[in-house]
Specification:
With about 290 residues, the chain is mainly β. The protein has four helices and 15 strands.
C-alpha cells in the first residue's frame, strides 16, 4: 500500500487538512509548491514545521505540535485570536508529492487544541482521537441545572430576555459601562455579542453586571479593545440554581438538576435529632 515510502528515492511531503466547525476545509503542506489531493488544494506558501509525533500504548492523549507562518491569506492572526479554529477537525498525513494519487500515510486524526500566535507565526496543538476518551460522557447527578438557558431542554424564550445596548465608557480594570438599566446581577452568566466595533460578531459570557453605570465585567477579555459607541446584544443569565429557575424564570418543570441531593458534608454528618428536618436547603450560588 505504501510502496512509495520504501523506494530508494522518496518524495515525501507533510500535509494537514483542517475542517472548521462551519464546514470550511483548508489544506496546507510543507512542500515548496501547492499540491492538489482529492480535489483539495494544499497551500505551500504558509508552510509549517511539525514536531515529533508522540503516541503511547497506555491510552494517553497523542500529542503533536505544528508551527507555521502567518503569511497565508487564509490564516490570519485575527481569526486565530477570535477562535475561528477552536475544536476544528484536523488530519495530518504524509504524501508522495511526485504522485499525489498514491495512498497517503495518515499520521494523526484528531482535533485542534490550543493555538498561540506571535508577530509572524503560530503554534497549534493537535490532540489525537484518544483525547475524547478523557472527556466525561453522559450526565452526572448535580445540584446545578445541566441545561443552558434558552436551549431545548430549558425551554425559556430568550426573546423576552434579550436587550440591545451601547458601550458608554471603558474602564482600566477591564470592565465597561453601558446604557443597560436592568437590576444588579440580571446579566450574570449571560451572553454579550457585539454588533459593531472591532469585536463585531464576537461574544463572551458575562461574569458580573451592575446597574450602576450598566457596568459589565466579561469572564474573558475580548480579542480587540472595546470602545465607547460599540453596540451589542445582551442576554440575561442563569446561575443554574433551583431558586433562580423558580423565582426568576418560573421554569421549575424544566429544571435539569437534583437540587436536594445531599453533599459530602451532609452525607457524613450525624443523624438529625427527633423532629429536625433532614431536607437539604436550596443553598447558595452553585457557580461561584
Amino acid at each position: 500500500m505504501y510502496e512509495w515510502l520504501t523506494s530508494p528515492l522518496t518524495r515525501i511531503a507533510w500535509c494537514w487538512k483542517l475542517t472548521l466547525l462551519d464546514g470550511t476545509i483548508m489544506g496546507f503542506t510543507s512542500h515548496d509548491e501547492d499540491l492538489i489531493i482529492d480535489g483539495i488544494t494544499y497551500e505551500a506558501s504558509s508552510g509549517f514545521s511539525p514536531s515529533a509525533v508522540e503516541t503511547g500504548k497506555d491510552m494517553s492523549v497523542d500529542n503533536l505540535d505544528v508551527e507555521g507562518y502567518l503569511i497565508s491569506d487564509r490564516i490570519t492572526k485575527k481569526d486565530v485570536e477570535t477562535g475561528c479554529y477552536d475544536n476544528a477537525e484536523i488530519e495530518v498525513f504524509l504524501c508522495n508529492w511526485g504522485n499525489v494519487n498514491d495512498t497517503p500515510f495518515i499520521l494523526r486524526h484528531g482535533s485542534l487544541g490550543e493555538v498561540t500566535t506571535g508577530k509572524l507565526a503560530f503554534q497549534a496543538e493537535i490532540s489525537g482521537l484518544t483525547a475524547y476518551l478523557q472527556q466525561t460522557t453522559g450526565e452526572i447527578i448535580q445540584k446545578a441545572c445541566r441545561a443552558t438557558l434558552g436551549d431545548e431542554r430549558c425551554g425559556v424564550d430568550l426573546a423576552d430576555y434579550t436587550f440591545t445596548g451601547t458601550v458608554t465608557a471603558v474602564k482600566e480594570d477591564g470592565t465597561f459601562d453601558t446604557d443597560l438599566v436592568q437590576a444588579d446581577k440580571y446579566f450574570d452568566y449571560g451572553l454579550l455579542h457585539f454588533i459593531t466595533g472591532d469585536n463585531a460578531g464576537r461574544g463572551c459570557e458575562i461574569k458580573e453586571y451592575l446597574r450602576d453605570g450598566g457596568n459589565v465585567l466579561p469572564f474573558l477579555p475580548f480579542p480587540y479593545q472595546v470602545a465607547a459607541g460599540d453596540t451589542f446584544t445582551a442576554i440575561a443569565g442563569c446561575d443554574g440554581n433551583f431558586s433562580t429557575c423558580k423565582n426568576v424564570y418560573n421554569n421549575v418543570v424544566n429544571f435539569r438538576g437534583e437540587p436536594h441531593v445531599p453533599g459530602s458534608d451532609y452525607a457524613a454528618s450525624y443523624p438529625a435529632s427527633a423532629g429536625a428536618s433532614n431536607t437539604v436547603a436550596e443553598g447558595g450560588n452553585v457557580k461561584r
